[in-house]
Amino acid sequence: MKVLYTYRQLLVFAMAILCLYPSCTSNLPEDLDALGDDVNYSQTLFEPTLGRNTEYQNPVVTGNSSTLPLTFKIVNPRTVTGQPATELTDKFAVKTWKSIYTGEEKSLEEIEKKRTTEYRPMLEIQEKSGNIFFWDSGNSGFVKTQPDSGYIFDVEISNSGGRRFARNLKLKPMKERPYEPSIYSQITGIATNSSTYPYRLENLEGERTGNFIFFTDVKVFFHKNLDNKNPGSSLTFSMLDSLNKVIDIKKFDKTDWNNLVHGFNPTFKNGKVTYDVAYPIPLVNLRTRYTDISGTSAVSNFVFDRKGRSGLVERNIVGLQYSIYEPGHWEIQVRFTGETPQFEDDK
């Protein structure tokens, strides 16, 4: 009888435990994420060039002691003297992509349907990756640029386990350079040269001497036509001889005009060729038929064939590698300062 009573006691005790279990577990704290001291920014200095979209990818070291995903937020952007940097947090109109650019678009309308205008702060952070993004909306008229010490900002890093801060990250923008290769210093904004050079010259010989034309004999100029008030943007290519007279661009008759640049409606007029384009050029960092292998620069090759001294047909090429960041009506002009190229066959 005593043993039976003990079993009843155990049964009652067990039932009591089961009845209490929901109320007890409901009061237990939820599991919290871990946030370790080893999560931080490996890159602490950011030097974007004004007028360009710049993304700093993978600047965060997460370590092994933090629970992912983390959340990142820019905190207290300020000048080096501690004044609020509202120019970095005010929102400006920028172009963003709502569909993927492929380089296969067949018209300006198709490109523009993939883009939209949004209002974003100049300095942004991707919430879940910590990547730093600097939009192209600023200029040196109101943004501090080098040699000024620029700006300082902090980044709050958090999850449900708490938060910590990456302190005193430095932002030191460079002055705008609307095209590359550029003649302007990123620090002073002053031109250090009057022209640039082509990136490719093959087999060109002088019309007068028959000597090879070298890179030092060819200059490349970028010019933005501020007087052209027509809507939209365009890019014109032109060639000048040693007397600064226009060489008919059609003499480069083996040029692939339809794929010279990702532009449309090529128009030949006054010895030049003009395309309707969307800026920047290239539109994104993506390798396409119009770019170099990195996708960061456009490549345009002007080509003609002629029979050389050996009696064999030689391919002649003038190649340009460039980027243009500022919308408008631009012209890239190639000047042969020594001799005009020979286009006729050798006898």
User: Which value, in Å, is the CA radius of gyration?
Assistant: 31 Å
| Portion in beta strands | 25-35%
Biggest sheet layout = 6 strands, mixed
Summarize the amount of helix as a percent range. under 10%
- Shape, principal axes of CA atoms: elongated
Can you tell me the residue ranges where pLDDT is under 50 for at least 5 consecutive residues? 1-5, 16-26
Strand and helix order: HEEEEEHEHEEEEEEEEEEEEEEE
Number of E-state strands: 21
Mean pLDDT: 92
Q: How far apart are the first and last residues' alpha carbons, in Å? A: 129 Å
Structural class: mainly beta
* Count of separate DSSP helical elements: 3
Organism: Sphingobacterium cellulitidis
InterPro entries: DUF5007
Keywords: Signal
Protein name: DUF5007 domain-containing protein
Q: Can you offer a commentary on this structure?
A:
- This protein is mainly beta.
- The chain has helices at 2-25, 86-89, 108-113, and strands at residues 40-41, 45-46, 54-56, 60-61, 71-79, 91-97, 115-121, 123-125, 132-134, 151-159, 162-171, 179-180, 200-202, 218-224, 234-240, 246-247, 264-269, 272-276, 298-307, 313-324, 329-336.
- Strands 14, 15, 16, 17, 18 and 21 form a 6-stranded mixed beta sheet that branches.
- Strand 10 and strand 11 (162-171) form a beta hairpin.
- The N and C termini lie far apart (129 Å).
- This is DUF5007 domain-containing protein.
- It comes from Sphingobacterium cellulitidis.
